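Exercise: predict the fold of this chain.
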Amino acid sequence: MDASTRAAVLKGPGAGQLHVASVIVHCRPEKLQSLKAWLIEQEGVEIPVSSPEGKLVVVSESDSERAIADLMQMIGDRPGVLNTAMVYHEIIDNEDDSP
């Protein structure tokens, strides 16, 4: 998620929290490229590292825990995915300093 989108999540109407999660994904090596292609199309998703053996670190930034859970479910439903595991979750509150 770029800085302007992140700011909109934190400051937009009805907003208040930014959820950052890191998920380890293990897939069959022959499905790695198609999974990566699908993941980068998802909003707020980055893949900072992956291995040819089918292991990826996926970072997600969203406005809710539900969005993270939904993403993990969608990843798990993709062809060739063997396992997903959330290893990090942080909630960043909107800290509006204006009176």
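Check your answer against the key: The first strand starts at residue 17 and ends at 27.
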